[in-house]
Structure formats: C-alpha cells, structure tokens
Amino acid sequence: MDSDLIQFIQQDKFAQYVGTKLIEVKPGYARVQMEVTENHLNGVGMVQGGAIFALADYAFAAACNSSGMLTVGINVNISYVKSPKGKVLSAIAKEVSSGKKICNVHIDVLDENDDLIAVAQATGYRK
Length: 127
Hints:
globular; single chain; alpha+beta; Thiol Ester Dehydrase, Chain A; six-stranded antiparallel β-sheet
C-alpha cells in the first residue's frame, strides 16, 4: 500500500479526535480499532451509537479510498446488534462492489471478544 495514501487516510482529524486507529489497509479492505474510554459512553454507561458509527465510518473511508481514488460517502446504513464487552472495538470494512463512480462496502464492528456489535452498508462516490 502506498505510504502517501496511508498518510492521507490517517490525517482524518475527526477519526483522531474520537481515538480510531488504522490497523491494516489494502485495496478494498481496512481494519481499524478504537479503545473505549469514558468519553465514548452514553448517559447509561454503554458505548454511544455515534462512537460505534464513527469507527465504522472510518473503516469505510479507509477501504474505499485504498484504491487511490478520492471517495466520499453518500449513504451509510448501520444496524446495532448488541452492546459491546471489553475496552477495544474493531471495524472491518470490505468493498463488495466497485465501479468508476460508485462503490459499496460492508462493515462489521466487533468487540474484543470478536462478538458482532454492529453491521453497516455504505455507498461511496468516487470524485
């Protein structure tokens, strides 16, 4: 993977702010992680859905931009399956289709026990 591309993906200021980290990226694939802190919890002490979404969105961005073509999200649907256990969440994004202008990515969010926490489907537009 091109080191300039990895640096581009890692420059996402919001992803840095919420604590996501790029673990692996290759064409059409990305794995990212986030260590859960008190700042990620909602009012009842569970991981806030927006934090889980941010993790999935960053994995989506890394996977669809791994082609080297600037790609932005135009639609993301997420379903939350269960509350995570432990302190580390991972998101694995895999491109399932890719064209000249549109790509589709499937994202699984897992807790540190590898239990499925959320599933997302995302569509990207290649600029």
